[in-house]
């Protein structure tokens, strides 16, 4: 009897291109295993799963999260600037409203 499998996607966006790979993986596959199986770590060598956050459909997850049918695993890039600090700088450069 063949092992049951599910379909998932692994994606990662870069400024110049996007990585998107559809996979058939065994039931019980984790986020971390799917990322490794996708070939993303070989195609984009700067990714470190100990540093880069991962998620499923925009919700942060851990590498040991078990995948479900049609999940899209997303590997996020680190932020270049703290969003709160960037907003403070923008607000500070505007004249006060009277």
Enumerate how many helices there are, as a single number.
Answer: 3
Order of helices and strands: EEHHEEEH
CATH homologous superfamily assignment: Beta-grasp domain
Mean pLDDT: 89
Percent of residues in helical segments?
A: 10-25%
The coarse silhouette is elongated
Q: What CATH first level would be assigned?
A: Alpha Beta
Counting helices, strands and paired strands, the structural category is alpha+beta
Assembly state? single chain
N→C terminal distance = 75 Å
Beta-strand content: 25-35%
Identify the CATH architecture.
Answer: Roll
How many domains? The number is 1
* Poorly predicted residue ranges: none
Report on this model:
- With 98 residues, this protein is α+β, with helices and mostly antiparallel strands.
- It has one domain: Beta-grasp domain (Ubiquitin-like (UB roll), Roll), CATH 3.10.20.30.
- The protein contains 3 helices and 5 strands; from the N terminus they run E-E-H-H-E-E-E-H.
- Strand 3 and strand 4 (59-61) form a beta hairpin.
- The mean pLDDT is 89.
């Amino acid at each position: 009897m063949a092992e049951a499998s599910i379909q998932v996607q692994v994606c990662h966006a870069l400024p110049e291109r996007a990585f998107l790979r559809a996979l058939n993986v065994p039931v019980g596959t984790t986020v971390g295993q799917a990322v490794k199986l996708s070939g993303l770590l070989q195609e984009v060598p700067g990714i470190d799963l100990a540093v880069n956050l991962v998620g499923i459909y925009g919700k942060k997850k851990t590498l040991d999260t078990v995948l479900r049918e049609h999940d899209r695993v997303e590997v996020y890039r680190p932020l270049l600037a703290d969003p709160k600090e960037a907003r403070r700088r923008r607000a500070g450069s505007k004249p006060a409203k009277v």
